[in-house]
Design brief:
12-stranded mixed sheet; 311 residues
Length: 311
């Protein structure tokens, strides 16, 4: 709340996140208070370019089966006309989403054994079977990579979805130190993400599997802040018909992180003691590590990848 105290003489009030009133706790930019919608998004080559990803406040990158990746995009500040392609949920999504209160969650489906856990979770589950009017099939690619969501319609089916609130992000001037970093690559067994600093865009240009990531209209995706968060990734309780277990990404606890902003990389620590709380990011000295205002990408990688200085 330090920022609130500093701004007391120039603003009418502050959110609990420490951002000024009228600003998003997810991006630090001006935004109205609005409900939270999370969408599980496909990320194999056949699903690219994705639609609506550039409008997300936060993009989480998760490892899934066969060492591939999938995205979980969180929207509140802006709702694009369409988002997708939408794909299925995983067990670890439930823990990750607890910090948002009771958000709306759009996904294409789940394994049958996981459905009771989704129904019991504090969220509004919005698969096509529950809100079919919010989904449509695109004509430019084959199923299952052509299922899209209309966010405004989806939120009508979640009238009590929580509004954006503090999840631990702090925004402000860059901290001291940091290492000049033209680009950084995070790797999974069968996927990789490269973030290259662009002074012109004031953000990190995103590449996936060696190919520039673009919007459906052809513009490069760029994020002002990228968090490479070292976590424990273990087998979940659920597996597919062939016996392959889905990875479970543990987003509670603590560990190392690397925060990319303003062309530099900062060594950091993250801490999230419980699922219901947000994640604090601190410098090596223990001070809050501030992000650059704008979209935030959070890439979950094994702890040893961050400790070992990969990238």
């Amino acid at each position: 709340m330090l920022l609130c105290a500093l701004l007391a003489g120039v603003t009418s009030g502050c959110q609990q996140s420490g951002t000024p009133a009228g600003h998003s706790p997810f991006t630090g930019k001006a935004a109205r208070a609005a409900p939270v919608l999370a969408v599980k998004i496909d990320n194999v080559r056949a699903a690219r370019p994705q639609t609506g990803l550039d409008a997300a406040d936060i993009v989480y990158v998760e490892r899934v089966e066969s060492g591939l990746s999938r995205l979980l995009a969180v929207y509140s500040s802006r709702l694009p006309p369409a988002v997708g392609p939408v794909r299925s949920a995983r067990e670890s999504d439930l823990e990750l989403l607890r910090q948002f209160g009771r958000p709306a969650f759009a996904y294409s489906g789940t394994q049958a054994k996981l459905e009771p856990a989704v129904e019991a979770a504090p969220l509004y589950p919005l698969p096509p079977g529950r809100t079919g009017a919010a989904y449509f099939r695109g004509q430019d690619r084959a199923a299952p990579h052509n299922l899209y969501l209309r966010p405004e319609r989806a939120l009508k089916a979640a009238p009590g979805a929580s509004t954006a609130h503090d999840i631990g992000f702090r925004f402000g001037a860059a901290p001291k130190g940091g290492r000049n970093t033209p680009s950084y690559t995070a790797r999974y067994p069968a996927a990789r993400f490269t973030f290259a600093w662009s002074a012109q865009r004031q953000g990190w240009l995103v590449s996936m599997d060696g190919t520039p990531a673009k919007t459906a209209s052809g513009q490069r995706l760029a994020a002002p802040t990228v968090v490479v968060q070292g976590v424990r990734i273990r087998p979940s309780r659920y597996h597919d018909r062939w016996g392959a277990y889905s990875p479970y990404t543990e987003t509670t606890g603590s560990g190392p992180a690397r925060v990319l902003r303003d062309g530099k990389a900062y060594q950091a620590r993250w801490s999230r003691p419980s699922p219901g709380g947000g994640t604090d990011f601190t410098t090596e000295s223990g001070a809050p590590l501030t992000f650059a205002a704008g979209q935030v990408w959070v890439v979950y990688v094994p702890e040893e990848a961050v400790r070992g200085g990969a990238g």
